Structure formats: C-alpha cells, structure tokens
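U., I forgot to send this yesterday:
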Amino acid sequence: MDRRQMVVQRVREFFGERLEDVLHMARQDRQELRGWQEPAHLRAAVRRTIREEGSPEAAAERAALGTLEFGRNAAEPDRGQQREGTGQLLEAGISGLEKTARNTPNEISAEEVLGLECLLLLYARPALLVSEGRLGSVPPFWNLLEDQREDIEMAQRGVGRLELLGHPEYDWAGTAFLVNENTLLTTRRIAELFTENRGDSWQFRPGITAWMSYRSAYQSVASAGYRVRSVIGVHDRYDLALLEVERPQLNGTAPTPLALAALPPQQLENRPVYLIGYPVRDARRNEPESLARIFRDVYNVKRVLPGLLRGTLTFHELQLLRHDAAPLGQTTGAPVIDLETHQVLGIQTCSRYLESGTAVPLYVLRDDPLLRRAGVTFAEATVQDRQALTEQIERLSRSRYWNDVRSFVADLYQRAFGTSPVSPSRQGG
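Result:
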C-alpha cells in the first residue's frame, strides 16, 4: 500500500460518516486563520505549545519580552508564517477530503495527501496539550472529550514521566502512572533503561537514579520531587514493570492513582478511549519537512490522545489490545483509558505513525501474583455505581459523623473502584 492509499484509508476509517462535518470544520478554521489568531484547538496541536506552557518564570520572561520571539531554530517559521503554512495545509486537506467524499482518490495529489495528514492530526486523532493540569481546547470532532473534561483532568494527575539522573544517554525514560499511592506501572523496556536483573532481583544501574515528574512540560530532575525508590518487580511474560515511588503530598491537585478495570468492556470494537502520555517522535516516521516543522512541538510534553479500540490480537499466547489513539509518535507506558468509565484498560507498548497501537490489557492480570503482591487494586464498579456512591459520600461529608466514617468510606471506595475518593475538604487544597 503506497502512502496515498494508506492516508485515504485512514481518513475513511477515522472520519467515517462525518466527512461532511470535518469539511465544514476545516473550512471554518481556514477562514479564521486569515485573521490574526489561530482557533484555540489548532494552537493546542501545533508548535509553540511547549514554549507557551512552560514555568511561571518562563511566563514572566515572556511578559517582559512582549511578543518578540527569541531563540527560534534555523529555518523555523515565525508565527505569521506558521499560521499561513497551517492554512495552506488546510486548503490542500479540504481539496483532498472533497475528492475522498466523491470517491475519486486517484485524483488526489501529493500536496493533498499532505493536507489530509494534517486533517488527521488536527481533527481525527489530535494530541491535546495538558497545561497546568488543564486539558487544552478540544476540536469539535471530539466534543465528547469536552463533556468528560473533569474526569480526564483528574486522571492526568496520576500520569507522569520517569526522569533520569546520571544516565549517559537519556534525560528521561518514558511514561508511567500511579496504580496505588506509592506504586508506578510502566513497561519492562522503560525500566530496563535504568535497572538491571541481578539474578533474584532487579536493581538500579550503578550511578543512575530515577524521579517521577507529573508535570506537563519538560521538568528538570532537581524539581521533579518524587524519587523512585526501588523495583517491585518485572513481569515474566508481559511488557510490564512495577516501581515503588515516594507518596505524593495530599492537596487539591495532588497526583491520584488511576483505577484499573477488572473486566473488559462488553463491546471492545470502536469503543472510545484516550491515552495520557508524552509522545516521542517515531524515528521510523517519514513525514515531509513542511508538516514536521508545524507539528514538531507536540513531542516530549504531556498530551491527551483520543481514539478507538480496534479489538484484540493474540501473540505467542499473550492477549493484546489494538487501538488507534496514538498515530503521532511513541507513547510507551501510557495508560489506555476507557472514556466512559475512566478506568485503565491497558498500558501502551508500541505504535507507529498513522497505524494501530498495541497495549497490554490489564484486566487479564487481575489475579496476577506480581500485581497482587504490589497491592494493585482493580475496579469493578459501573459508572452508575460510582455516581451513586459519590453522592452518598458528599451527603456524609456534610454530617457531624463524617470524621468517624471517613476512613471506612475511603477503604470501601478503594476496594470498589481502585482509587480513593477526594473529600470536599481536600478539593480546595
């Protein structure tokens, strides 16, 4: 299959019966790009986001410098050039999408193929920035994410990046996420970057320490804050590793453990999911330079990547999940989260540009000895159960008996949902 055929196939798979809706969105965004500002959801997917997100110190520096841009790389377009470049890609994508809708894919030019790739990355499978704990603007195609914004922003708190000190090659290893208050789940391949098997146990490589940063942008080790203490275990069959990490401080925005699904959804095919991770550029990706210059800064910062499950596959007697939620780059170690229940269905192991990704389904490990030994809890409650119990907790929190029953409720909630409730007294910090 050549590049044009692959891209047209992805357009039909990802957009489905909504081709006309996407055409309307793209035309409207192209018109807005003729002004001075990009639509908010475009700014959440193209370059400059890593600089706009940054630290408070960087924000103060930007305010002092005004609108001037310093430190642009050689040949990097300025804001006006980038805006116009995005507009030209949208125009080419609109033309290619019209030909796809008319079922004349052989008439699509190379420029229109490039434009279709742009539409896929902006609308079908966007990489939405997480900044200061908040989800970036959502394209209309994925307004379902907007409806679930609060739960997604809660889930992203427990996802972070393993940063390394003393490693000769890497500043960071990959994505990991909390599965209880002091346990991280990541992949074996990520753990092998800074640990090694010494016969009966896994130990850190000499001179290397690892830290967990839950922040959105690139974070130096000195301020990461949560040290990885030890390796709890590495799975002997699946690409999984469990690490002991310092407990997060309890406040209104503290990292919170993610709930692992005890059972698979009744319907896996085409079920909406999302990943939370730090996309890394796939070295096998071969997109044209004009596209790379616009989308390059989606990498190495925390992103939410929506998509759909594409069923399961069996590889050497191992059951794996397939999905299309990470078509941009590598997101190894990211949790694959059900958009309805916000329970973790799997952990990402590999993906390729515009192709299906593969994840380890965690529900098949519900009774696994390694996870049981680490105290990993699986959630069995439905959305309705969770809503009912949350309402009961809120009523109890307003009664004079709250202090007496809080610990009991927290334990019950942990066993039911795999995570602890956030009481109203903690929500404000």
